[in-house]
Predict the 3D structure of the following.
Amino acid sequence: MPVADPEVEVLIVGGGPVGLTARALLERWGVSTLLVERYAELSPFPRSRLVNVRSMEIFRQLGLAATITARAFAPEYGRIRFRDTLHGRDFATAAMVGINAPISESPLIGVLTSQDRLEPTLLGAADTPMRFGAELIELVEEAESVVATLVDHDSGEETLVRARYVLAADGANSTVRQRLGIDTTGPGALGRWTTVVFDADLNRWSAQQPAGVYATAHGSFLPLYPDGGWAWIGPPPEDIAGADWPDLVSRALGSADVRVDVLRVQHWVVNAFVAERFRHGRVLLAGDAAHAVPPSGGLGMNVGIADVHNLCWKLAGVLHGWAGPGLLETYETERQPVAHRTLRQAVANSQLMLQAQNRRREQLQAGEAALGQIEVPWSERYFAQLGLVLGVAYHSAAVLTDDGTPPEPSDTGADYAPTAEPGHRMPHRWLKDNHSTLDALGEWFTLLTPDPTRWEQQTTPPLPLHIETLPNEHADLWGLGSHGALLIRPDGHIGARWPDRPPSDSTLHHTLTTITGSTCPKPAH
């Protein structure tokens, strides 16, 4: 008989960046969790490498941004270079916007860092229990909880864990998603690739022209860590079992006089899909379990981190009683459209990279290689995706327009224009003493207003709320009068806006209970 463990509020399945971020966020909210990971340790492979500016904003809220930046590459590595071989000249290049240099739209800059350097930082961000080498093999939903059966890979012992909710971040081949019978839409498997992690001295070809990715005709070369290490990514050879990996990498380099020390090899599939549902009762999917995104443009991990940033405050509200269970329905409503847009953009990114390489091939075939640079099929703004990174707008019952109704869906496009419209991320503006508008946000609702005294007289339900002063010059910028206000949700998105004074003394109470689906009665004066 399986041994029964104590009940937890949230069981997190999967110990990658998304699951680890969820663990840290939920601990900040005071939610008891257990994270289980089927592998015996964190992944030793670099895998996802780009942490975009929005993810860094989330990590700043968790107090991790400075540590992550210190372990990452310098900004000048935020570039992709196209070459015939690693030791050849660039025939095309593109900057990674928000990585290679600061942007005015955020107090932070994104970074290039390998996943095996990021995950230990995320692991150390919380003290709640984790169990490595424990795989979920069964899941049974009950009226008020979910019962999971786990098997320990070392001992073979089975244990039962009862949780109020399950957050499944167990990857593109999610056991949880498959157990629940949730189908996916999209192209599916796009191809098989191999990553070879190796040591070699390649400074003579890279030190003077740094980049995060060198895309060549023989695969891509990626510097892994500021203190050394490389990866080659390319199609697997026909005979994987008999492959001579050092020779393969040497031939891809186009140079036999470089010593290549292969450390590890990983074979993987590029998947492209979105789950038809992100929720099944008390089980919620996040990250690659909910959407698998091709790696071009570095969007996949980041959209998963944004998933749990959206979800964890809602779970906390329901578990702590200041939000109704219906609030969890807005998770899929808000995040699934983002997943579809991200998938489309990632596929487009892949096509853009192929176009650049195809144009070079045509140039070589025509004997025009001496012409050097080719005209790339995108602007200097790397794949023009800031609209996806910072411009996501939510449309659900957890967002109210100026007239108190949910907003209509819209597509912000590839470009980002800061706006204080409900549903959008709160725009960054520097206030004073290196303090951003985003620094006022946290594990609470935030009301920003030029007139805090008036709004402090409002009745509010028993939920976490901070009222902060917004300087008049910023209020004017966002269309607020001297008594207006912005209500920002714990995930940094604007939940409601009042251009001027509150219509009644119960305005804030009504708005908060509507957004959270709470049934808290209005307190008597």
